[in-house]
Amino acid sequence: MTMKTKLYHHLQSTTTKNPQWNTLLREAANKSLFTKALSLYLHMLRSGASPNAFTFPFAIKSCAALSLPITGKQLHCHVFKTGCLLEPFVQTSLISMYGKCSLIDNARKLFDENPQSRKLTVCYNSLLSGYALNSRVKDVVVLFCEMRELGVEINGVTMLGLVQPCGIPGNLGLGMCVHGFCVKFGLDMDSSVGNCLLTMYVKSGEIDCGRKLFDEMPRKGLITWNAMINGYAQNGLANNVLELYKEMESKGFCPDPLTLVGVLSSCAHLGALSVGKEVERKMEGFGFSSNPFLNNALVNMYARCGNLKKARDIFDGMPVKSVVSWTAIIGGYGMHGQGEVAVELFDEMIRGGIKPDGTAFVSVLSACSHAGLTNKGLDYFGVMERKYGLRPGAEHYSCMVDLLGRAGRLNEARELIESMQVRADGALWGALLGACKIHRNVELAELAFEQVIELEPTNTGYYVLLSNVYTEAGNLEGILRVRMLMRKRKLKKDPGCSYVEFKGRVHLFFAGDRNHPQTNEIYKKLNELENLVKDLDGCKKNDHERREEYLNSMGVHSEKLAVAFALLNTRKETEIIIIKNLRICGDCHLFIKLVSKIVDRQFVVRDATRFHHFKNGFCSCKEYW
DNA sequence: GTAGGGTTAG
C-alpha cells in the first residue's frame, strides 16, 4: 500500500476530517493539479465528510480551469445546500467559474442575488474579467462605471479586466483611455497591469507604443520580456526579436518555452538557421524538448530554413501531433515544391481524425498552387465549407487566385474574385498581378495593379511587379509611367538583398554591393560565371530566348553576388547552397539555373513565398517562368 | 487555512 492510499484510508476512517481534506485539495489546486483536486473532492464526499467554505473555492477553481460547466453547476448546488452561498470567497470563485465556462449570465445572476457583491472589489473583479473573457466590452465598461459611482475600491486586478478586451483591433481608443485611468490611480507601475497594457499595444499593432511602455517599466519580469518579444514576433519584426532576446540574456534572464517559441518563429521568418539551432540546444539544456508548442515551432523553423529532412524527423518523433504540427510540415513540403507529399500528408491527417482548420487549408491550397496541382486544389477548396463548415477567408481566395492564375486560368481567377463575399485584400489582387506576370497579360495586370495599390499604396513590390510586366512586353511607356507614379508618391524601391549563411554567419549582399571583405574575388568569380553562361550551349529553346534577354539586361543583382560568394567559399560538391532572398520574387532564377548546370552544384533559393531547388540546371518547382 | 488577474505555436 502506497503512502497516498494509506492516507486516503486514514482520512476515510476519521470523523473530524474536513481540515485534512481541505489541505489536500488546496495543495492540489495550487499546484494546478485540477483533475486531482476534483477527484479528492469526490473522495471527500464519499467518505461522508461535508465540504465547507474552505473546501469550495478550490473545487470550483478546478472546475473553472478544466472548463467543466456541468460539474460547476453541481458544485453550485452543493454550496447552496451547505449554506455557504453568502461566503464572499465561495461566491467570487463561483462567479469566476461561470465566466470561464462561458455561462456569463449565470455569473451575473449570482452577483445580483447577493447585495454584498456591490461592496466588494473582488466580486466586481471576477464579474468584470468574466465579461472581458466573453468579449462583452460594453458590459465591462458599464460595470467599471458602476464601481466608480458606488465608490468601490479599484485595484490592479480591476484594471486587468478592463485592459484585456482593448487588445481587440478597433478598441485601441478605449485602451488608451484605460491606460489613462491606470496612471490616474497609480496602478500603471503594477507589473501585471504593465504587462497587460504592453500586450494590448502590441496586439493592436502599436508596437512603438508598446516598446515605449516596455522601456519605461521599472521592474521587468520574464513575462514582460516575453510579451515584448512575442509582440515583435507577431508583428513580423523578426530582427527586433533576435536583438531583444540577446539583450534579455545579457541581463541574466533565463528564457522559458514562451520566449523560445517567439525566437524560433523569428528564425523561421529570417531563415536564421544557426540561431535556430542554438535555440534547439537551449531547449534540450533546459529540459523543454518535449514541449509541443516548441516542437511545432522547431518543425516550422527547419522547414522554412530549407532543412526539410530535419523538420520531418522532429515531426515524426512527436508523440502527439496537433493540427498546428501537421500544418507546419504540410506548409514545409508545399514551399519546397513537393506538393504531392503535402497533399498526401493532409489526407493522412484527416484519416487520423484531426479536423483541419482555416490555416491548415491555407497550407494545403498553397502547396497545390506551387506544385501545379490545380484540380486537387479546387477539390479542397470545395470541400472546405461543405464538409468542414469553414467559410473561406480572403487568405483562401488568395491561394485560389494564385492556383488558377499560375495554371493560366486568369479569367476564372478574375471571376472568382468578382463572385466572392469577403472583402478583397492586397494579397488577393497581388496574386492575380503575379499570375499576369507569368502569363504576360498586360491588360489584366493593369486592372489588378489599380486595385492592389488602392489597398496597399506604399508596397513597392507591386510597382516593381507591374514594371516587370511592361519590361517583358517591351512597353517602355508603361515602365516610365510606373516610375513617374512612384516618384510622385515619393516611393523608393527598397533595395532587394540576398544572403547566404556560411559557418554560422550571415553574408548579406545588395545589388552592386562592394562592401564584402572578399569583394574583389567575388566579382572575379562572377565575371567568370557570366562568361560561362554566355558560352553555354544546349539549353532548352525557351531558356535560350530568355538567356538572350537576360544577357541584354545584365546587372550585378544581389543573387548573383550571393552565388559567387557561395561558390568561392564552399568546396564540397554534395553541399547544398541556400540563398535567401527577401524580395517579392527573385529575378535571377535563370542565371542560377544555368550556373547550377555548369558547375554541377545544388542551389536552394528562397524568396518571399517559397523555395526553388536547382540541380543540374533543373528546377524542381513547377514554376512557369 | 479560503477569492479576483497577465504572456502561449502556423
Description:
Helix 20 (323-335) packs antiparallel against helix 21 and helix 24 (394-406) runs parallel beside helix 26 (426-438). The chain has helices spanning 3-13, 18-30, 34-46, 56-66, 69-81, 88-100, 104-113, 121-133, 137-150, 156-163, 172-184, 191-203, 207-216, 222-234, 238-250, 257-270, 273-286, 292-304, 308-317, 323-335, 339-351, 358-371, 374-388, 394-406, 410-419, 426-438, 442-455, 460-473, 476-488, 519-535, 541-552, 558-569, 589-599; strands at 497-502, 505-510, 576-581, 602-606, 611-615, 618-619. The chain has a 6-stranded mixed beta sheet with strand order 2-1-3-4-5-6, covered by helices on one side. The longest helix has 17 residues, at 519-535. Helices cover 67% and strands 5% of the residues. The chain has a domain at 497-619. With 625 residues, the chain is mainly α. It is built from 33 helices and 6 strands. It is elongated. The structure holds one DNA strand of 10 nucleotides.
Class based on secondary structure composition and strand pairing: mainly alpha
Helicity level, as a percent range?
A: 55-70%
- Through-space gap between termini: 74 Å
Strand order, main sheet: write it out.
2-1-3-4-5-6
Number of strands: 6
The profile of the biggest β sheet is: 6 strands, mixed
Number of helices: 33
* Low-confidence blocks of residues: none
Mean pLDDT comes to 87
Strand content: under 5%
Q: Label the overall shape.
A: elongated
Rg estimate, integer Å: 30 Å
What secondary-structure arrangement, pairings included, does this model have?
Elements lengths: L2 H11 L4 H13 L3 H13 L9 H11 L2 H13 L6 H13 L3 H10 L7 H13 L3 H14 L5 H8 L8 H13 L6 H13 L3 H10 L5 H13 L3 H13 L6 H14 L2 H14 L5 H13 L3 H10 L5 H13 L3 H13 L6 H14 L2 H15 L5 H13 L3 H10 L6 H13 L3 H14 L4 H14 L2 H13 L8 E6 L2 E6 L8 H17 L5 H12 L5 H12 L6 E6 L7 H11 L2 E5 L4 E5 L2 E2 L6
Parallel strand pairs: 3-4
Antiparallel strand pairs: 1-2, 1-3, 4-5, 5-6
Helix pairs in contact: 2-3, 2-4, 3-4, 4-5, 4-6, 5-6, 6-7, 6-8, 7-8, 8-9, 8-10, 10-11, 10-12, 11-12, 12-13, 12-14, 13-14, 14-15, 14-16, 15-16, 16-17, 16-18, 17-18, 18-19, 18-20, 19-20, 20-21, 20-22, 21-22, 22-23, 22-24, 23-24, 24-25, 24-26, 25-26, 26-27, 26-28, 27-28, 28-29, 30-32, ...
The chain binds one DNA strand of 10 nucleotides through α2, α4, α6, α8 and α10.
